[in-house]
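Quick question, first post here. What does this chain look like in 3D?
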Amino acid sequence: MKKRQLFFILFFSFFLLSFTSIFPQSDPFRINETGPVTVKSQDIFLFWMEDIGGGNIKNYQKVYRYKTDGILHPLDSLYIDTMLTNTSRREDSRPGKNAFIDVASAQFNKDPYDDIVAAWRTTQSNQKLEIMISHFDTTGFYTNTTPVTLDVGKDIRQDEEIYVRAGDFDADSLDEFLVAFRDLSDSVIFYMFDVDSTLQASQSARFSNTKVAGSSLAHFVKYFIETADLNGDGVDEIILSTWETGVTTTAVPITIRVYAVENGVIVQKSTTIINVPKSNVTGLQDFIMASAKGQFDTDDSDELVFSAVVKSNFTHVSHHYILNVSQNLQTISVGPRQQYTMISDFPFFINDITELGLAAGDLNGNGRDEVVFAAGRNIRVCAVNDDYTFVVKADAGVANAGPSDYTQSNNYLKVKDVNMDSRDDIIIVKNIVLGSTLDGFEIAAVTFPDSTLADGTQKVFARKLRDENQNDVYQRYAIAVGNFDGFDFTVGTPSLYHEYGIVQPVVLLNAPPVHFDMLNGNIYDVNGCFNGGDCDFWTLYKKQTTSSVEVKTEVHNDWQVSGGAKAEGQITGSPMGVGVNLNYKVWATGKYGNQFSKDQTNRTTVTVSVEVEAREDDRIYSTIADYDIWEYPVFHGNEPFARRSYFALVPKNVQATWYGSKSYFAQQYIPDHQVSNILSYYPYDTLSSNPNLSQIIRASYVSDRFSLDGSSSYAWNLSITDFEQNGADTTRNLGIDVGAELGGVSASFKFDNTKMSTHTTSIENLIDLRVHLGNVNMGLGDVKYSVTPYAYWGTNDALVIDYAVQPELAPIGFPLTWWQEKYGNNPDPTFVLPWLLDPEKGFALGDPDKRFQTKDITFLPRKPVPGDTLTISARVRNFSLKATSTPVSVKFYLDDPDSGGTALIGVNGTNTVTTNGVINVQGKTDVNFKWVVPNGLPAYPRIYAVLDQGNAITEIHEDNNKGYNILGISPVLGLEDAANILPEDYALYQSYPNPFNPSTTIKYSIPNSDIVNIKVFDILGREVAVLLNEYKPAGTYNIEFNASRFASGVYFYQLHSGNFVETKKMVLMK
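> Answer (accepted):
Ran it through. Tokens below.
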């Protein structure tokens, strides 16, 4: 089976086995099908020999780690040189020779770290090899090593390759390793070692059954070793490629042997010969070969790619084959030969003595490996067809140290997922020896953002240059890739939540500002718009035809990762000194995000189908959708507490409609003005200062400012030309603020103002939005004022038509205008109260208290549970031409304080907060009040805020000083009916608190009266408690779980009612 970076955590495995029926619904990331997914970091281990003077050769090692924390810089940017961190160099005190060395990564024990085994020749004896096994810790820097000296009893060839390979040869799920070399009799000899849990090695086998032929060529690779699971049984085999007989006039014959380890004995299973062609019958200058394992077809077993470079008649030709071994290991099938004349086929090739690198990996995440072949300044990427033929995908240049580069390393190329995006990357390390400032090791990581692997799309995403400069001397080196700091994260089994009627504004047509007020018992209708008046102020969404499309919106899936856990003191460890903030987003984007976002299953496109006019009230075009919300916990290492969560949003039942700002659909729309009060529209110095504005489409005080008087009549319109002239977006992604709209989903995670983009709005060429401004009733006095319409994309990502308003004010020494007479003597602290004067305007109110309903009071989280610290925010405004003389006090109550309401005592010990300073002319300020939600709170309570309750400020109005909003209300339901709402669906909520000691509360909802069963299970799936097993009417309930008699650990609680079953996790920490 292919060894992917997917592992099961033990307790989740037990959980899934015990609760196979818990998840009837398939989650977007398919974690319910695959089980929890563990993603390991992949680090680069560099091992090299260095002459420190006088022929004294020392070996050194370093680990390089990709920076997955902090800011990710653009691919191929200058900043890529900052994206690799490294440990300091580490020395093994045993001497060595400047001869070929090798290194391999392995998993020798069950700790979280991959291990390293390296081998080199020693100056002490030509009959010995030195072996090193590294012990790693969380820094990626090993604390010590296991030294092994292998005395073979005969001379080892000192001028040829030695090999270190690791694999699970005995089916114990842990690796062993072997060292291979050639002695002076040309025998290829294997030594195999077992490694115990303390990383102590012991020799388990010695084997040799073949000799290679002799050659006088300076660069003739006569044998190569690889390990792979060739039959998919979970046990690795050994593959030996050897040149054993003389070169013929047409070919170099290479023998391929497959060995298995049976009862501790290395046994040959099969053999075949590949005749690698020569391009010239008379001469052979170089021959280099290599092999690499990969999955090149659709079965579960590894295949082998075998490559050889033949230089004859001073021309390099490469030959490539795919080898497939039968299930019983008895037959080796060789695929078609692919040949490249390198000087003409490889754009970056240099025609001198060539080093060779060969590796395989899945570069585009399609489940099949590609072949990566490096030689002579060229990297070539090839895909493999079903018939094992090759398809060239891309060529790239690579550094080359010069004509003797081949003497430095035959292990400098790897293909592994370094940046954890679930696509393998190309890692290449070269020691540059050019006699310039560029000398030293160059480490580079290359990725293909384009899944087609098209030539030219490869990008370098991390690089380190001129590291460990070796004074212009060729040095032997080798590399390995593995998880050497033990750092990983696991995406756990998800929880499913449901949100109903989430409203996303697409177009906001604010009605033109008119003015209506009651002062000292007198009604003033400045524009004649109410009580049957003919209002000549309107905003129009113009339809060109009944079927024309001016604005369209696509509703689709999206996902996001939370900003972090509240319990941040749980952070432990600092891998390689670069912090613990892994870039989960990069991994999820590569593994799941792109496919999920492209899923067409839940896509809906809506268009504005009717012509709409905003007159006397704002009009809003919104989508209204239900959402399935999947929350995936993210754990670091073996920690029991999730650090973050992935959230995946799947829209359902998408509708779209126009409605007024007072509609119940508009519960989540908070206008920054009060319809029919021009003093509520703030006259910004520059229109771009509007905090609700994200991007200007059209805004000008110079050309679009209109002064209204007794005979005025103005027209203003917005067309596609305005978008084009101002460079404004015509396509916009609309986002749900998951910190607010979904604030009640999780009690453990926050989103740091992150938006999840589930809508994409497109503006078509036919767009036509019109505004008409009429006149004012000068019979009331000098009531002139100016209006500036402007258009922008809002911070809520909606297309907005808005207005800046300025009442006309007389200069000093001139008679005061009506505005100054009525609003210039006292301040008027208030809230936006859309219904306050509805009866006076001629609109009936079924509930007299509705006059005081406001959206200037908001709650976070939006749907709290008992024990939550609720933040109540109140936006205090001043609809006056005079600033308040003092800060304004704000008191908070449960229910109307004028009808027996109860004061809320906040965490500050009182029910009062005060604005930070005075409130300026037509200004506003926010106050925050924190209150711990108690048990026994009535459903959907009204939370009141009262301004200046002690009457410290003389005000214009005294009847607009209080307002209320409803806590926990659904955004699409009538407010008057809220108290009678029953759950629409089953729901099991996250217990709170979590973690807990010793008690936690479990909240659940059932839409139908039925038997309800709630049980608790331990980590092994054993039932440990039955909390409830009785008939319950439809409704929402809380039940307490007291775990005083239980041990600390992970527990699961399960709700079963009717056909509904859902399970969640909780952690008891004593």
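Residues 584-598 form the longest helix (15 residues).
The mean pLDDT is 83.
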